[in-house]
Design brief:
By secondary structure, the chain is of the alpha+beta class. Helix content is 60%, strand content 8%.
Length: 250
């Protein structure tokens, strides 16, 4: 059974996300777990090789053992913090499974969000209460999600009741600008994509002045997230150009 999570944006646009189920989250975690431990194993093997070749006790001394243990725990929790912050709520495992962490209000997770939810991971992983909380939560939130104000959602299901028309008619950026946008497109979130699709689907039914105000606000918001100083006359052209890239890259 799937669970929906609904938010209403400041522009009074209703957006519905599908909550990531525990099975999907566990699979993503196992992928990340394997990546972590393969990486740690590779580092240890490299250090062992250095010690064999140079006779420098990089593994056999007391201080090196302490550093390795400390580094191991930093890897366990730093891995999630770094990836979720830089990849807009994704880790390699989450990306593979098509899920993402976002803030409860639909915004991208902040540094404090990912730090809090991953520090509490210690409790969630090693004390049964963490699993129990996630199991009984309608939003499948673990304790760390409640404390950080985050939720894990599926980002593969983007269909709306009224699909966007053929994108071949949409505007595009000049080649140099398009390259810049593509290199920064991961700064945008699942919410940005869904709101943009919602606008493009509904814009012809909106009152012209209201549509222009909404389009200008949406275009400015997308350009700001992309750190792109781009002058435009028609906001719809900007929205279409960014949307085409979002559909291809996100």
């Amino acid at each position: 059974m799937t669970h929906d999570y609904r938010i209403v944006t400041s522009d009074n646009v209703k957006v519905t996300f599908e909550v990531a189920e525990l099975g999907t989250r566990c699979t993503a975690f196992l992928i990340d777990f394997l990546i972590q431990h393969i990486s740690v194993g590779g580092i240890i093997f490299l250090l062992w090789g250095i010690e064999r070749l140079t006779e420098i006790p990089v593994l056999s001394s007391d201080w090196s053992v302490v550093i390795l243990i400390l580094g191991y725990f930093i890897m366990l929790w730093g891995y999630f913090i770094v990836f979720e912050r830089l990849w807009n709520g994704r880790t390699p495992g989450k990306k593979r499974m098509g899920i993402r962490v976002m803030a409860d209000n639909g915004h991208a997770v902040s540094t404090s969000d990912v730090v809090i939810r991953n520090i509490v991971r210690i409790i969630d992983q090693f004390i049964p209460i963490g699993i129990i909380v996630a199991f009984i939560s309608p939003q499948r939130k673990r304790l760390g999600d409640y404390l950080a104000g985050t939720i894990v959602i599926k980002e593969k299901e983007f269909e709306l009741k009224g699909p966007v028309k053929d994108m071949s008619t949409y505007n595009s950026f000049p080649v140099d600008i398009e390259g810049t946008v593509r290199s920064r497109i991961q700064r945008l979130t699942a919410q940005d994509l869904k709101i943009t699709r919602e606008y493009l689907t509904r814009r012809e039914a909106l009152e012209p002045n209201a549509a222009k105000r909404l389009a200008t606000k949406l275009a400015d918001g997308l350009l700001k997230k992309l750190s792109l100083d781009y002058t435009y006359d028609e906001p719809d052209k900007i929205i279409e150009a960014i949307y085409v890239i979002m559909e291809a890259e996100l």
